[in-house]
Fold this protein.
Amino acid sequence: MKILLINPWIYDVASYDYWLKPLGLLMLARNLDDSGHDLHLIDCLDRNDPEIESWRGKKTKSKWNGTGKFEDSVIDKPLPLSHVPRYFKRYGLPMPLFKKKLRNLKEKNWNPDYIFVTSAMTYWYPGSFEAIKLAKEAFPYAKSVLGGNYANLLPIHSEKSGADLVCHESRMEDVIKFLRSNGIPMKKDLEDKVNLIPLYDLYQHHTSHIVFLTSLGCPYNCTYCATPFLQNFTQEDPLKIIDAVEKYTQMFAVKSVAFFDDAILINREKHFDRILKEIIKRKLPEKGIMFHIPNGIHCKLLTEETALLMKAANVRTIKVALETIDPVLQKVTGAKVTNADFFRAIDILKRSGFTKREVSAFVMINLPNQTFSGAIKVHDICKELDIIPEINEYTPIPGTKDFENVFGSQELPEGFDPLQLNNTILSFSWKEGMSPDEIEAIKTYNKKTVLEIKNKKGVER
């Protein structure tokens, strides 16, 4: 069967390519390819697409670490966001180029039997809806299928997508069963195997970065996180991961590799430490390849041995998951970290040779019951430790305990659009949280703190 895979645009008030790749879609593509299907990918968030560069008339710029700005265009603000004083934009592939890609497939007589459209954040759903609509117009006889996080977390709302089928499963074994039950042949016993290697072969050009999940899921149960019930915790064979890293860094002449695990330090001696040792053994750092861990490491699990291996493996970005310095909030949100754990982890990283150039702390703002003073204080602590505080604005995710605490049930209130779950927009609708003015004040304090830390001793990032 011919299957068109689409990673849609981001519809948001702000967005940036922090090592984004459609990993779920690409891992599914691996299984589809193993099952003999003919695949084509349109990745609307691929900044390195040569057609974008031709359309723009210049090369795509990326930072030293492979991240960079998306193309964007201001679009009409949806009614639920009419009260929000921000522009609403479509980030990613310019619309004329998306339509051109669909026309090119028709001209080549490559008519898909199925169109798979993925989804990520619940509040990015307009991108998926738009991709489904346009793809169905181009290929009216193809069956459209929506899947991904949004389809899993908001199953009722996702039925409005216009897709012929909506997959509400997230675990790969269940997705494969869903496909079989809807007439899509899949290779026997695929669901019994762990295969987390994305099918990057679908890209035919240079990219600024590649991304891997060396594991899925997380054994912790933080009240604000959906990962534990979306995926069972499983880890890929370390050698398979490094084989793939070696293959694709050579294929795409790429220097930045990100590991996006939620819990990369679990079972570290048999897993992440082995990955790091293999990176060193194969001399990947000597080839200029650098590694990034942007999703937050667990402070409790970090050891000096692992930190030294990370240093030797040329890990250049380490985000340390702190979230909050309020001991009460730390406990009620899942007891993943304590202040002592955090101080210990930072000390280990510093003694291993890492500096503020490589290490930063994730801090959340607007958590339920979080105080303004607490959000300010965490910045002062980071300044004392000489590490950058990076703000994550809280958003309640359907299915989590915090979502129920915020809304009183697992259903969105009547008249509340998923667009309003956007962490940048939430404060304009959620009156029990921090006010927009308080959040803006914290962001201003964050910028001031970051500038002071970066300028200390003349260090620049």
Summary: The two ends are 48 Å apart (CA to CA). Residues 145 and 165 are 5 Å apart (CA to CA). The chain has 16 helices and 16 strands.
